[in-house]
């Protein structure tokens, strides 16, 4: 049987201190990514909204249309900076997420770009589940006031390693997305994300470990560093979890890099010990993934 993860790989999550200055954010991200790749990382992840502040009022102002051809570099600076960075660092770059403006529809998306070491864009993921919550006295956030949702599970084949899945922050709360990606052969689920001080302490680590435990794959969550002078206070705590839901590394709220070595043997060992994959009873619950069973109000 082919290995899910073809070669051991060092993963790095960059918990970036972001500012309101896009040019600074791009050059700072470049410095940190090169630091991680010098230390051996071949897959490097940036946080959600790594080139802008996070907030509904910022999406339009910071949005870029994704234009691959070189003359449009000035209109699509993040695309080109990440593509160049992937080439310069010889690494797969999962470019957190950025506000994207689709030229034809004028719709805005929260979008993640994945680049190969050749600089080629391998995949885009538009956040599927928009962060719309209202916890009285704590936090109200409605991405849907300005953003449109994406509509796909994003699996990316990294030829040297195997398949990863990319989704964004609030997407982690929907186990179906993770399960489908794992069933389709992902060895790693990556979530650039920016939880907050209300839900972060409660659910950030729990979500990461739950998705890893359910699917027996590696899971990584990559946050911006916390900035108490910004409007949105990110939780931080970027972390990597192994297929047994054990934490391989976790930061605090400050800027930093967390690295972890991933290998196929750990996935196989965990799956052999607790063989969920062969024990599943689709005869008992055939309808769930098709949404045929509705919530009762
Ligand atoms: N940026 C986000 O999607 C935040 C998600 C979040 O904080 C949560 O609790 O879920």
From TrEMBL:
Secretion signal, residue range per the UniProt entry: none
Keywords, comma-separated and alphabetical: Hydrolase
Any single biological process term in GO: oxaloacetate metabolic process
Species of origin: Glonium stellatum
UniProt GO cellular component terms: mitochondrion
Family, per entry: Belongs to the carbon-nitrogen hydrolase superfamily. NIT1/NIT2 family.
Lineage, highest ranks first: Eukaryota, Fungi, Dikarya, Ascomycota, Pezizomycotina
Listed GO MF terms: omega-amidase activity
Domain of life, source organism: Eukaryota
Record protein name field: Carbon-nitrogen hydrolase
CN hydrolase domain location: 9-264
Presence of the UniProt keyword Magnesium in the record: no
């Amino acid at each position: 049987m082919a290995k899910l993860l073809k070669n051991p790989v060092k993963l790095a999550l960059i918990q970036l201190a972001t500012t309101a200055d896009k040019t600074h954010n791009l050059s700072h991200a470049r410095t940190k990514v090169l630091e991680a790749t010098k230390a051996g990382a071949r897959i490097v992840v940036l946080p959600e909204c790594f080139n802008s502040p996070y907030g509904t009022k910022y999406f339009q102002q910071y949005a870029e249309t994704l234009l691959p051809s070189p003359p449009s570099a000035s209109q699509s600076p993040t695309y080109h900076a990440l593509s160049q960075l992937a080439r310069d660092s010889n690494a797969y770059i999962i470019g957190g997420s950025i506000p994207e403006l689709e030229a034809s529809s004028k719709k805005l998306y929260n979008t993640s770009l994945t680049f190969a070491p050749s600089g080629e864009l391998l995949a885009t993921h538009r956040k599927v589940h928009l962060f719309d919550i209202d916890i009285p006295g704590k936090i109200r956030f409605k991405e849907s006031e300005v953003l449109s949702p994406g509509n796909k599970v994003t699996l990316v084949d990294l030829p040297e390693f195997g398949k990863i899945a990319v989704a964004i922050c609030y997407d982690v709360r929907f186990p179906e997305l993770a399960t489908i990606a794992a069933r389709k052969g992902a060895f790693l689920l990556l979530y650039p994300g920016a939880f907050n001080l209300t839900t972060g302490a409660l659910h950030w680590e729990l979500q990461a470990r739950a998705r890893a435990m359910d699917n027996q794959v590696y899971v990584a969550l990559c946050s911006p560093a916390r900035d108490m002078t910004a409007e949105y206070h990110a939780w931080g705590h970027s972390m990597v979890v192994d297929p047994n839901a054990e934490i391989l590394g976790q930061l605090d709220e400050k800027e930093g890099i967390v690295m972890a070595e991933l290998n196929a043997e750990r996935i196989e060992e965990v799956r052999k010990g607790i063989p969920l994959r062969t024990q599943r009873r689709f005869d008992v619950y055939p309808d769930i993934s098709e949404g045929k069973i509705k919530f009762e109000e």
